[in-house]
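Continuing the batch. This is chain 6 of the set; chains 1 through 5 are on the previous pages. Same settings as before, nothing changed between runs. Recording input and output for traceability.
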Amino acid sequence: MFFQRYYLNCLSHASYMIADEETKVAAVVDPQRDVDQYLQDAAEHGFQIKYVFLTHFHADFLAGHIELRDKVGAKIYLGARAEAEFDFTPVRDGDVIEFGKVRLVILETPGHTPESISIVVYDLAVSDEVPFGVLTGDTLFIGDVGRPDLLASIGVTADELAEMLYDSLHNKLMKLPDETRVYPAHGAGSLCGKQLGDAPYSTIGEQKKYNYALQPMSLEEFKKIVTAEQPEAPDYFVHDAILNRKDRPVLDEALQRSLKALPLEEVLELQRQGAQILDTRDAADFAGGHLKGAINIGLDGKYALWCGTILRKEQPIVVIADPGREAEAVMRLGRIGFDYVRGYLDGGPRALDGHPELLQTTPRITAPALAERIDARDDVQVIDVRAEKEWQAGHIPGSLNIPLNDLPERLDEIPADQECVVHCEGGYRSSIAASLLQRAERHVWDLVGGFKAWAASKLPVVEEHSETAAK
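Output for chain 6:
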């Protein structure tokens, strides 16, 4: 049996190819939308991809099942409770798909979503009784379980899903042999859970021992613990969960429309008409000079996640990228179904040379310099755009916590006539925040190195519990 894991760091997403070396038949599970890597590996080994499985309708990315269907004729398999616009084969508990020495046995494991399945994989050349592993989708992660609250907004309550999840874990997955390997669809950094591990796989036995959600507890205790303190889900999650049900255009068609070099004059006209200007360079380059009104979300970070969180689905996008990275910037937007890119600035940032009237810089300040301003009681507001948990663990005295995903709706809390210094943990999110604040005509500085630089400079840090105790 051939077994390959593919990991996409930007989205903390794992997908898998399973193939039989003799019959050369292959299946792909939870593919990302840009499917070239699966096609390349299949061609290299002489495999034919006949099956594509979605363990559920993913919310955080647009899956590549339509692409594999259209490119190689793969048949799509979904849990029996799935409802989709395209033709698919519904699978239920105990259904078996076998090719050569590979056997795939379906477990219906609802909880993260109603149609969720897990796939138990047998390498028949080794054993037809002990599974090689189980692909758990978003039902069971390393160190966590799938959150049951994402679909509460479209007709299924978190309480109902949590009950399904408890049953799926205790009466199905935990009954597999302890040595069965666990291969989930996401790792650390995903918003589909709250404390995912970053190991590529674990075992059922290890998870029964160490996973907080698999410890002995009642259903009511389980429901409380798995719904508590979940990170806020971006708006685009519902958008992608719906798109994954649709028979929509493939990525190649979207890229054909979007990968157009646009002259500066056309970019400016599109901006006047309401297009979002997305500058994908790193924070330092963006701060040094950028088109007024541009939003900075750097390619070398959680680009797709923050694009999906910050950008508006109803407004077109124009990309500004370092030359040679335009296709990457547009393709990675396509991974989350943001197919409404009108093009990219021809020549990249250099197209702005000779146009100082169009340029803007972002002032930056070091941690010691900020400390001096605070000590001098300058009228400067420090804005911490990290998540609330990060802020509670330690923050700059007097800072205002506005998590980045909330910032577009909370701009009114920042007076237009007051200088502010924005920071995150290391500088990636704060550059996004600074660009949003500048676009809203706020007087903003970006803290170089973020909270890490402040703490490393041995400057005062407040923990939320100590503040509470002082009160």
